[in-house]
Task: inverse folding
């Protein structure tokens, strides 16, 4: 068993992915906002952010990724963020929490397939939990099962994931940024109960380490660049004696490294898609587009 359990969060912008991260970490015991929570479907996650916490003797690392459908990011930025997330779990991961409000869009299904076929492999289904957010009847096991059955019927492409035993957890992470003290107390209780449900699931079902070959292949391309980038960023943050010219030179080198990492990631996409075969119909450009740009007129609940 590993010393730490790596949990990666994925999901469409506005589905409550970062909120789930805050609920799990529960900083200060009052769900402080360590992951930025957006409102009105606006993504606040433009950086891959990592937070750790201990629970019942288990150390968890939560990795919050860029929201699916974030229109404010360029193709190069998205490629870099994909690489960054892969690098964060280079030693393996224990669980993917796929956050949804109950109805999967085409871009969500495509992105999960991208993870399954290109970045990871088909075994990812065994390490994926669907977290159904904003479900007011999350305490009612019967209604949770009814909702699970409904999701299977509506999402044939993800039905194998949903059918997997104990792979759907229903929660209600109600907002905390409200002034009404009574409502705030109720919402905090909902978050506490939701957190308990997820942690029980993680403690009992998510202790095996998953490290697919594709993840190793991608990190072999970007690992040296990422190591150098980390050193430069740390030096830039901590050095007090650099003049502005030296800082600009370092920032330029950081930008160059990020660009190289993005190109290496795109090259990895192209190579991996080629191995799968053209019949799959995925090319790296389309993969990036679907992560970056939302499908217009998509009905998101």
Result:
């Amino acid at each position: 068993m590993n010393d730490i359990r790596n949990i990666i969060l994925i999901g469409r912008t506005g589905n409550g992915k970062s909120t789930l991260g805050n609920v799990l970490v529960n900083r200060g015991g009052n769900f402080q906002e360590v992951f930025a929570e957006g409102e009105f479907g606006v993504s606040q996650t433009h950086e891959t952010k990592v937070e750790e916490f201990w629970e019942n003797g288990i150390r968890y690392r939560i990795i919050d990724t860029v929201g699916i459908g974030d229109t404010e990011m360029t193709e190069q930025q998205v490629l870099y963020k994909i690489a960054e997330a892969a690098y964060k779990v280079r030693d393996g991961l224990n669980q993917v929490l796929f956050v949804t409000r109950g109805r999967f869009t085409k871009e969500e299904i495509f992105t999960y397939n991208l993870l399954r076929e290109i970045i990871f492999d088909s075994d990812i289904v065994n390490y994926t939990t669907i977290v159904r957010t904003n479900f007011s009847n999350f305490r009612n096991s019967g209604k949770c099962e009814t909702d699970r059955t409904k999701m299977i019927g509506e999402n044939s492409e993800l039905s194998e994931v949903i059918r997997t035993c104990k792979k759907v957890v229903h929660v209600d992470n109600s907002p905390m940024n409200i002034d009404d003290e009574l409502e705030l107390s109720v919402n905090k209780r909902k978050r506490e109960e939701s957190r308990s449900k997820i942690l029980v699931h993680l403690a009992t079902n998510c202790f095996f380490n998953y490290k697919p070959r594709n993840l190793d292949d991608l990190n072999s391309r970007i690992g040296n660049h990422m190591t150098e980038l980390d050193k430069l960023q740390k030096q830039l943050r901590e050095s007090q004696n650099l003049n502005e010219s030296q800082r600009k030179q370092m920032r330029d080198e950081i930008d160059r490294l990020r660009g190289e990492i993005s190109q290496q990631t795109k090259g990895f996409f192209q190579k991996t898609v080629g191995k799968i075969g053209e019949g799959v119909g995925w090319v790296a450009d389309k993969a990036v587009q679907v992560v970056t740009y939302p499908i217009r007129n998509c009905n998101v609940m």
The beta strands are 4-11, 49-55, 58-64, 95-100, 128-132, 168-170. The two ends are 38 Å apart (CA to CA). Residues 40-45, 276-284, 290-301 have pLDDT under 50 and may be disordered. The CA atoms of residues 128 and 177 lie 30 Å apart.
